[in-house]
Amino acid sequence: MDTKTNDNTLNPYSLDIGKYPIKILPLGGMDEMGKNCYVIEVDEDIFVIEAGLKYPTSQMPGVDFIIPDFTYLKNNARRVKGIIITHGHDDQYGAIPYLLGVCNAPIYATQTTIQMIRHTYYNRFKKVINGAKFITVQPSDSIQIAGHSFELFQTTHSVAESFGFALRTRFGNIVYTSDFISDYSPLKGYQFDLPKVARLSENEKTFLLMTESESADLPGISSPNHKITDQIKSVIEDPTGKTFISIYNQNFYNIQEVINLALRYRRKILIANPDQKSFFEAMAQIGDIVIPPSSLVKVEELNTISPKDLIILVTGSGENLYRFCKEICYGNIPGIKVETADTWINCAPSVPGTEIMAVDAADTIFRTDCHVLTLSRKEVASMHARQEDLKLMISLFRPSYYLPIKGDFSLLMANAKLATELGIGLNHYNTFVYDNGMALIFDSFGKQVHKNILIKNGDVMVDGNSVGDVKETAIEERTKMADGGVVVIGLAYSSKAKKILSNPDIQMRGFLYLKDSEPLLAAISSLFLTTVNTLLTDEKKHASIEIEKKAADKISRYIIKNTNKEPMVFCKLVDIDDMELIDPR
Known about the structure:
The chain is built from 16 helices and 29 strands.
């Protein structure tokens, strides 16, 4: 099979690739979990499929999340005809506000997904979201975008109204499945439109099939192991106290199961996180995850309800959910207290980038001494296609070419291997395992063009309001501070008199306990004074920034040699001759 390589990479901006009618350009989601973004070009028209984010690892302190590099789309913005978001998860839509900053194309999505985007970004990106052109589609619609036909088909996933699609081309359909499982008795709103999939596969040729790979290494099918009802029913049916349930707010399917159980056993539901109340209200407005008003309670009403009749729903996304779980356990949420008789059901296994925080939150829950039921991925399957689910889709469509997407490299390889072993004509020549930025190109005869073309791509780190300005050096400094602490040293001097005017002020954080540091402080102070004085009185004039750097280097080497620790060292000199005098009147 054609696997990824970076050898002999050509510059796409100096190469004429416009003559090729079909191009597939992944900008995210390949050899990684999250940050999904795939570009499909048909003739001169560009369609962007997903615009997601991924969460940073513990080695990226201060980074909020990571989005794709949209340089290619910025350079070709006039050709972008539509953005398709197949479902309401942030690894699919999380980069939408940033994508709209480079190409303001219409967004095609279902009502559920649009509501998720609006709710997530309305406050922070109000102007961008209000200015976006959303076009609502039904999960199994037939739509036209810039004269191109798209046949959507609903899929079963953990959020309502998910879909895949078939894009008609002169060579046959390009089929993109998005996330799915083969579940034939799902909750209302999560139906897998197998009849339409069968019609498309039977009546039309499939040129290229793109399927997800997140669970491609797991045997069998996901259904019915994705359901939590049987796992938690006994707790809700016969509780010993309050029942806490922590769950991702984007997992509509399992949240709906909790609501159904609450209604069956006449339990009341409290939404623990005040910030999440608007989320549930927004979803209820369009008929998703509806909690009847008679079943909802407020914190002020808890004293009037028997603990055994109460379900406390703890929801959120990513690390925010884990932080809130800890806040509840610490007793920092007014009116909510975890007691020994209570049960905590943890239905939020970690996702890539949140593993450390998830373990920390789980430990904190256990320390409350309540009953804990943890549903790991062994007990509850994620709603992503496993091997038999994938075999079903591949066997139905029988594509001429196959491109596994969405997953780490080992998962992409597992998906590709699965396809080539089915015996339906897929082999090492028409099955591709690619990396982000690698262009899969087809000529005017529908044949793959073997050219090593790498489109500009990569990780763009978002840090607060800063996008793409977080450099590797900044990450290294933050990591160093987290591991070794920080030492800040400053003093005042006169550049005209070439004289030090104050004793050094030394501050340390995360380095040494103050009671253990007096000899070291004295040595650092002496070294700092000597270095500054030597450079100040030198015949060659030294700028303050140069003196600061040389002093910091000397102090860093001294600390490493004498403590085997490596904190960040910052030196600051204040020149009183540069200070602006203020008239006291």
